[in-house]
Each structure stands twice: as structure tokens, then as C-alpha cells.
Amino acid sequence: EGGVVGVDMEWQPTFGCISTQRVALIQLAALDQVFLLDLCVAGFCQHPGTVSFIRSLFSDRSIIKLGYGMSGDIKCLLATWQQLLEEPLKMEGVLDLLKIHPKIQRQKINRPQNGPKEVLVGEGSSEKGLSLLVQQVLKKPLDKTEQMSNWEKRPMRISQIRYAVADACCLLEVYSVLSSNPDQFGLPSDLRSIMSRQSEKRGGKKKNEEKSCDKEECQGAQRVSPPRSDREKGLLCGEKPSEDAPPLPPQHLRVVCDNMLQGLGRYLRCLGVDVIMLENTDDHRVAAKLAQAEGRFILTCGQPYQTLRSQVGEGRCLSLDCAEKARDQAAQVLRHFNVQLKHCDIFSRCQVRKLTLFLNVFIK
After folding, report:
1. Same-domain check for residues 246 and 198
2. 46 φ/ψ angles, rounded to the nearest 5 degrees
């Protein structure tokens, strides 16, 4: 009983229009041991004992569960086990290091003037997400070479196993450093207090929102990065915008559309959104460069999502269903970013007749 466990998960990268991501491997790091739960082993995933263990682990408040961007992992757990939808998974003792990463980045107190310069996500560093946190706290790199590998193929390669172990172990190492000197990182002396606040926020959600998590929600499961403003805070947490949150005018939404979503880009541009569209000959990496340089969100679909997400940081890339029409894709984007449209937002070059039905949905 008690203790701290580093939790990480791996799943098969999505290709084409696959709408679900089922967990293939769960890594649990504790003290000097790492346990790999291989959900691809025949019969292991659906064994009653496996599901029971997951419930017991996440509901035990005496065990601190460390993760980074755990909202995405949990959504994919729900896609893996239907039982966790029918009887919602109880979350206790979970500490998402992603939620405290912004505090670490902003901390300048007690740093010597000749010390290391503060590094923000997307600014002057090729590292993103957990890799950046490890770099900042442990002063060492985290190899993400195997991130895009086939996690459902068996047997796993030695390099995959090493990657999986390192991803879970580094969470314990980061927690150890933060706990030993919290003042240096601008954190409270008892990190458990942060964990309590995170639990309270989760508990405050509406029950119908909790039950609405289904398999389709695992497509592009949003792991979050530090929000650049309070307006972006909700959406970057992978949650629906709060009903009382200020709506976002379309002119304030800045996106770059992958060349597979040019129809969506034209649609959003007609609605007043600040859109850059890639040319047919542009490499997908151009989208990442534009997003980093101009602070834009990336809109993409299919296979490029995994690569782009790793390049721009968690929460800055939205994956859409490439089988949907541009109008339906645009509706999803506007809802996701809580954009409120007005008639004056429509550009004069648009064919307003084609947008009438669309506007009736979004304009009060």
C-alpha cells in the first residue's frame, strides 16, 4: 500500500480515418522495478482480473499515480475497456505533471542571473511535452525515437522495451527532484495538495459529460500543453469549453490547415478565422514550422497527426475525420474552440447562400 507509481501507455499510431485508439501497452514504474502490461497478449486484456486491477489502481488514493497528459491516456483506456464506460472509472490519487509544467516554466525566483535561461514550449527548443519537462528538470534528454513505432506488433523490439521503460521511469525521477526542492520550481511544499486540486476539478464536471466519453473520443486524444491565455485554457485541457467561458471571436483563432484539409481551410477563412493553408506540394512539416513560428493550432487528419503532434507539442494539433465534409469539419472546429460567429464575420467573397444553413446553427 502507498507509494508512487509512474504510469504511461502506448498504442498503435492511427492511420487513415481510424477513429479509435486502443491501449497496447501499459507501463507501471515503482521504485526500482517497471512492470509492462501487454494488452496484446491473447486473453489478457479482457481477463476480469486485468480490468479489476486497473480499477483498483486508479481508485486507490494511497498510491500516487504520476503521468503526463493523462486525460488522453484515460480516454484510450475507455476505448479499450467498455466496462469502464458502463461503470465509470473512479480516479483518486492522480498527479498529472502536465498540469504543473506551466508553473515550472514560469518560475524565475531564486534563479541566478547567469543560470539557465527559461525555456517555454515552442520557443527556442526542439523538445516538447514530457521531453521538455525531463530536459528542464533532469537536465538530460528523453529519447522519443520509438514513439511512432508499431506497438501492437509482437514480439516487441529491445529498443521499444527500453523506450517504454524510460517513459515511465522518468516520471518518478522528475517527481523525486520536484519533491526534494519544490521552492526552486515554484511549487508548494506538498505536491499532494496539487493532486487534491486536480481531483476536485475532475469531480466538478457534469456527470453527463463524464459518461459521454466513448471510443470515438480517443481519436486525437488531447494531451495538453501550457495554455497561452486563459481563453485557451479549457480547450488545451482536452475538455469542452465551459458554458460560462468567454466565447472566442473567429478572428482570434489562428490555425494552419494541412494540405489534406484545404476545403476546411477555405470554409473557415470565409467565416473569419485566421487561416494559413499548405500547398499541395508542401511537406507536412511546414505546418509544424508555421505553428511554432506564429503560435497557430494545426488542423490535420489521418497519419500525419501523430508526427505533427510530436513536433509542436501536446494540445496544439487537432485531428479531424477526413471522411467528413468541410462543413461538418468546420462545425467541429468551431465547437472545439468555442468560437462564436456573427453575420459580420462572413467575408464578402464567400457564397453566403451556401453558408446559410451552417450559420443558423452557430449564430443566435
Report:
1. no
2. -95, 5
